[in-house]
Design goal:
330 residues, Rossmann fold, elongated, eight-stranded mixed sheet, 2 domains, alpha/beta
């Protein structure tokens, strides 16, 4: 029987009501798994670690380092890893692990639930059973398993706060679908990753700005005089910025002059940034802005944090941002 490590990090999955009608609080996950999902022991030999028990809104770079260390130590003795995680920041954690485990040979599967395991109509049981089974497959990727679909972790986005199918992969097909059987789309499994080693360090001096009609870039000029190293501008459509004035172009020019990296993403989930499509995109590119391609904003932010922590040379950061490390960009 294969061995699967389950890492419980918190989130809705393991919560229980403190009292009838009260807010949810962390429950005793090991007892809950034995009571509500005993069938996982028919799939694999299970071990459980609980490094922390947090609302996922509170999971960040420190917790990513903890997860990295646990998984790195466990990989030799495990056939796969399942991470139970709150849904709100699950895709950030998935992206971080995908970049840090570029030498991955076994699956790391992130899952969670929209309702607690103890609830009558909970999706937690099926999500966990699916994730544990998937962790026994020979898929060397960081995956998100949720609502009978399996996505590449760094391509995933949370799309709903109330549907059981709460995640999607806008620009890449599912790696597997789960019905009566698990159907793996082998054609879409990552065949190779970048030949680079990245330490589990994160630089936090980055910023994402959502551009909207009427937003004045001059208000952000003072930010260019501090330790900020990179800015992601979430533009419209294919990466457009307001172009009736040169304000955004001037902002980009000043940022680049001050050795800041500027990337342009999109507020649209589907599609690829094309800065050559319209004149406002061309002007931004000429000023020094770079395209995020079809990366999600979440995957791009985490990628920047890791690359800036690993490389002092900004040209290297640019280089690796523009290429696929772990299948995050086409």
């Amino acid at each position: 029987m294969k061995k699967v490590l389950i890492i419980h990090t918190g989130g809705t999955f393991g919560m229980t009501p403190a009292d009838p009608g009260k807010i949810l609080q962390p429950g005793k996950i090991e007892e809950s798994l034995g009571e509500f999902v005993p069938s996982i022991h028919q799939i694999a030999e299970i071990s459980i670690k609980i490094p922390f028990n947090l609302d996922s809104s509170n999971i960040g770079t420190d917790e990513w380092k903890i997860l990295y260390d646990i998984i790195r130590m466990a990989m030799e003795d495990s056939d796969g890893v399942v991470i139970i995680h709150g849904t709100d920041t699950l895709v950030y954690t998935a992206a971080a692990l995908s970049y840090l485990f570029l030498d991955l040979k076994k699956p790391i599967v992130l899952t969670g639930s929209q309702r607690p395991l103890s609830a009558l109509r909970s999706d937690a049981r099926s999500n966990l059973i699916n994730a544990v089974e998937l962790a026994t497959y020979a898929i060397p990727e960081v995956l998100v398993c949720f609502g009978n679909k399996v996505y590449r972790g760094n391509r995933s986005k949370k799309i709903s706060i109330e549907r059981f199918e709460s995640f999607d992969s806008p620009n890449y097909p599912p790696l597997a679908t789960i019905g009566l059987n698990v159907h793996v789309n082998a054609h879409y499994i990552l065949q190779s990753k970048a030949n680079v080693q990245l330490k589990s360090s994160f630089f936090k001096g980055i910023l994402a700005l959502r551009v909207f009609p009427g937003l004045d870039p001059k208000k952000f000029m003072p930010l260019l005089d501090n330790s900020l190293k990179a800015i992601i501008l979430e533009g419209f459509g294919a990466g457009n910025l307001p172009g009736m004035t040169m304000d955004w172009v001037d902002f980009i020019s000043v940022a680049v002059l001050k050795q800041k990296l500027v990337f342009i993403g999109s507020q649209s989930s589907h599609g690829t940034i094309d800065l050559q499509l319209y004149s406002c995109g061309q002007q931004a590119e000429q000023a020094g802005a770079l395209s995020l391609g079809d990366m999600t904003i979440e995957a791009a932010l985490v990628k920047l944090m890791i690359l800036l922590a690993n490389f002092e040379d900004l040209e290297k950061v640019k280089k690796y941002m523009m290429v696929s490390l772990a299948g995050e960009i086409t």
